[in-house]
# Entry
Amino acid sequence: MSTEPSNQRASAKAPGWYARAAAQPDPEHRPAAFQRLLLAEVFAHARECYPEECCGLMLGPPGAEPRQVVRCTNVQNVRLAKGESKLNSSQGFWIDEQELERALRSAEARGEELRVVYHSHVDTGAYLSHTDLEAALGPEGTPLWSGVGQLVVSVSENGVAEAALFEWDEEREAYVGRLARELE
# Structure
């Protein structure tokens, strides 16, 4: 039996992206459970957008599990063309701001709110990258949307490999990740 901490054992055999990640899912934490239809919709979106990153929202009642997926348009290539980013849509995502505003207004009118922002990672793991982290945090170093999780889906031409939910931990002042799975 090894006396190394489990995170050291994991990092020793982890893929290359692991060291570049701002946050990784901890396989020892209880998985985040989502309704089967919601995850199926997010996974389908990731597969359809491949080899570009997909992006979207999961909406639901305040403090409750998400009930609806809203697919959004990744306008990262537009930002690249304008010189606003160095990443293309296979390397990053940016939700169309008009779509975001419409979705949030519609949710508010129904008494719902943004619960999760999701996007895919192409041909790599389900981790929170430094770019993802920068986009999720405001100038104070805290999340732009309090209580909103970040769901990252790993997708390749073979399909979805895994997904992980990252939630803000106030004590650690950091996102903490756990694998995502369907509700049983």
About this structure: Residues 23-182 form a domain with the Cytidine Deaminase; domain 2 fold (CATH 3.40.140.10). Residues 49 and 120 are 9 Å apart (CA to CA). The helical segments are 6-12, 17-20, 36-49, 76-81, 97-109, 130-136.
